[in-house]
Amino acid sequence: MLCPKCRSEIPDDANICCYCGRVIHRLEPRPRKRPNGAGSVYKLTDKRRSRPWVVAKSGTIMGRYATKSGAMEALAKLAGKPVGDAIDLTVGEIHTLWQAQHYARLTPKGQETYDLAWAKLEPLAPRKMRSIRTEDVQAIVDGEAAKGRSRSSLEKIRMLYSQLCQYAMKKDIIDRNYAEYLVLPRQKPVVRDVFTEDEIRRLKEDAAAGGETSMVILILIYTGYRINELLQKRRDQVDLSKGVMYGGEKTAAGRDRVVVINDAIRPYVEHFMGKGGGTLLLSGYSGNIVRNNFARRDWTDTLQRLGISREGRQLHPHCTRYTFATRAKAAGVDNDALKRTIGHTDFATTSEYYIQTDIEYLKKEMGKMG
Question: Would the pTM count as exceeding 0.90?
Fold first, then answer.
């Protein structure tokens, strides 16, 4: 090998010329040319871009990445996969296609949940699905969190985005579920109030005097029904001869359940069964049977009239469900029976979110230690 400077003959493996001291720079071998149609990786010249490395295949940009190694990894995953017509589908088009398949298996309540989540993701609808990354949806999640949205609402956004990613992966549009990398804020402590025995006594006294809203509230407390499950309960789902009510909503475990009519509320159920001529159990109820109207008017007015509140805040209808689970567990109701009555698939859900600690009970038990 000749030194490029002094042209002296030097060993082929020399790094420095032993005659003139010139450093011999060895060029790295050029990477082999990829086969036609295998795709390419190149870097954009605009230094302001956070993802300057581009993966292209068959003349179509498949994605942009922050590092060359990330782009090379993505290109490797595309090996052997043809670029189909679906590659340019937008987020909105993916949502429409996914919705056509998925909504047929959902209840109206489940569809409503996804509709609310889509309202948050809809600003991304015009963009191509393959261009969306975690940070795009993270910005939406962070914005909703800043508005004070609950973690449950943010979970629904992540759930929908995950579904869209999975659909796009089946179409070979993207190679991973970017929803997995979303970061949600910590769950804030939730106050889950339950009705006290004294408050239940006041409701019973009011019901005995003809207070129909108190009757409805007590039915909720003794059945564990969600408010809308009771308001929409059909008369043909009530069997007084067997002392049970059938059905519910939300999950399969909830829709197919059997709920016992406790002796404490049987007179109220009989009252409404004998009064209304419509299809619903509460057709003859003198108040509102639309959920939001019932909660804003009948519920609020009755609790205020009976002096039932918590340090300046109003109890909400779901508190009856917490009350049912807490009282049933304190009474020694079997876990399986409680789970099936409340409509949960797993008792852990009932235990974690619905059963509230009775402080007086703990004091009594700890007092046994002397």
Answer: no
